[in-house]
Amino acid sequence: MWVRRLTFVLIAVIAMPAAARIPSLAAAAPAVTVAQGTEPASLDAFQEISRSGYNVTLHVYDPLFMRSENGAIVPMLATGYKIVSPTTWQFSLRRGVRFHNGEPFDANAVKFTFDHDLLKESAQNYLLNGVKEVRVIDPYTVQVITADPMPLLLFNLTLVGIMPPRYYQAQGASFVATHPVGTGPYRFQSWVKDDRLTLTANPAYWGGAPRIRTLVFRLIPDASARVAALRTGEADIITDFPPDLASSVQGSPQIQVETTKGTRSINIMLDTGAGPLRDKRVRQALNYAVDKETIVKKLLGGFGTVEATLVPATYLGVNPLLKPYPYDPAKAKSLLAEAGYPNGFSTVFQSPRGRYLADAEVSQAAVGYLKAVGVNAELRYFEWGNYVNMYFKHQLGPIFLIGSASAALDAGDALENVSCGVWDSWYCNPGIQARYLKARSTLDPARRAGLYREIQPLIFDEAPTIFMYTQQGIYGVNKRLDWTPRADETLWLAKAAVK
Amino acid sequence: MQRYIARRLVQAAVVLAGTSVLVFVLTHVIGDPVALLLPFQASQEQLAAVRHALGLDRPLWFQYVAFVRGALHGDLGLSVRQHVPALALVLERVPATAELALTALSLAVGLSVPLGILAALRRRTFIDRAALLFTIIGQSMPTFWLGLLAILVFGVTLRWLPTGGMGGWAHLLLPATVLGVFSAAGITRLTRASVLDVVAEDYLRTARSKGLRETAVIGRHMLRNAALPVVTWIGLELGTLLGGAAVAETVFSWPGMGRLAVQAIFARDFPVVQATVLFAAAVFVLATLLTDLLYAWLDPRIRYG
Lengths: 499, 305
Fold this sequence. Notes:
CATH superfamily of the largest domain in chain A: Dipeptide-binding Protein, Domain 3
CATH architecture of the largest domain in chain B: Orthogonal Bundle
CATH topology of the largest domain in chain B: MetI-like fold
Structural class of chain A: alpha+beta
Oligomer: heterodimer
Distance between the termini of chain B: 6 Å
Low-confidence stretches of chain A: 14-29
Largest sheet of chain A: 11 strands, mixed
Mean pLDDT of chain B: 87
Low-confidence stretches of chain B: none
Helix content of chain A: 25-40%
């Protein structure tokens, strides 16, 4: 009797999952769902700086300018600009635009946003910290006065969403952080933290009502689980698609993997201040020693582009004529011998684990290549939180792997890592520095790009780092969507549609 | 009994105080959140300014005293990343974790207690061997792997259940089952061993010889005695479940406390890490206390003085 009853309970418990069969989960979803690995910490545009956060906030708040699909600057809440003097920019503003709560958009909103203490105190302050004053000329004209010429101002403005002054002042920062109001193509609807965030189309959007009515941003931290959600139709777009799973969806009638050239450059930094790495020949040898093409092909599944210097091909000012150091271990050995290290030397190689695409494996491979030419590097891994602290404290080295991305997609940002007098550089060459500073303060983009192009052969020859590759942006996309990823890796769905 | 409870409450306070020191020191020696908050373009001056604004440039003991003073008033500080009270963030996620952990525990107990009893009563039969196989697999499979496997089978291939997120009971079933499997395996083994321990006891023979029905012998005499170690184990299992929840919540995108803790650790969001750990410690201490009291109720031989 007892045994029979217990058996019954057991069967009931085991049978529960089978009873849970539910018909087509995806068919009922009228919305487009984006799954990302992290979610915004805040929806207050003053506070949020993460890429996954921008992907949400840029649908709610419009900036003055934005990048087009191919990276060009296009007007948004500004309709145009004029450089009055090297330190004075004048912007004309779009008329007849209202925030989602009905508050009118005008010059005061721009001044309120750019002048706000919270923006200045936040991690975004680097975007506008060269701005001295914001002057309202008339309701639809503002002037931005900078302390020094600020060539990257326009690019930086693409990341600053314009906030509604009255709403912000009446509701306070902590309320706005969870109830954002902007002028953007989508209005905020709801946010279940750590789960999903829902936006609905703004029918009165100045740029035309979006075709997708509801946007859901889901947080799925595990990459394999994101792919699973894409395969079941629970997600339509997933970010950071793991390259090792790309083959699993190949030939799928429903899913495709889309890529952009990418903006994050991964390099192996060399502390050129001491030891063998002071010698240019040694640094060149290390560049010849590492087979970057094979690393990208085998470890990144081909989702990367080998670069000649630290400047990714997507940046303004890249020199397309330079070709990457070829893989040539024999040349590496002879250069080492020439520099007085015929038997190589011993050093330390540090690497994060889990921060960048296959970072631990890439470092391991690089250490193997170095060993093959006699450079014995002891590989030390660190969790990202520790690593970034060591980076900021200048405790990494002599050899370490790091990624960097320029929000402005400007060669100047990439070259900062090999410039003089800044804390995040391990190299200094006064001759190159003078040219670098001249380029950095040149307002005209074409002239600036030209100056950067001239610098890159010098940097290439000096080899202050082991130049590696640019990591591609990889997305998994449901084929029912009409959407293409953008060069700057902003996920922008205002113009997307369901086929 | 009241004196016993009072003594246990004082002990609980000591445990919590110890935990607070430990978690405070541990979080502060693994680096600070400022480097993670600012982009690489930030200058050293900007870093110093943010560090100062967060009070992280003060001596550690000073920060700890300020933390304890706040904690005594229910203020565990502001989240460095989200700029809202840390305790509120934790409390917001308690219902989700409670739902997951309690469902997992119910599934585990519902599966493993009958399985353990059956295995003991039908020793060396097919069911006993099946139970043994289940315990070995259940205890040796890591939760994250089992979770991904479950997503692949029940979510992607069979399309029976959603792959993650929070919604109705369908969303709950996979994560709760995966989380419960490890506990279930342990409880099955223990139940089986406990039943085997008492199965040959004299009092059972006496009960049977008095003419009691087998149902009463098993229910009233055997299971009640065999239940003692199992009840203790289940109480302690809550700790395992809270720990396992961090993994299950990450794999299944379940918006609970465990995932909040994981995110906070990676972001070095000290106040949130402290609030989560202290809250979990308090729950655990309370659960052990309740287990001990239940134990006394089950076993009349145990009386606390």
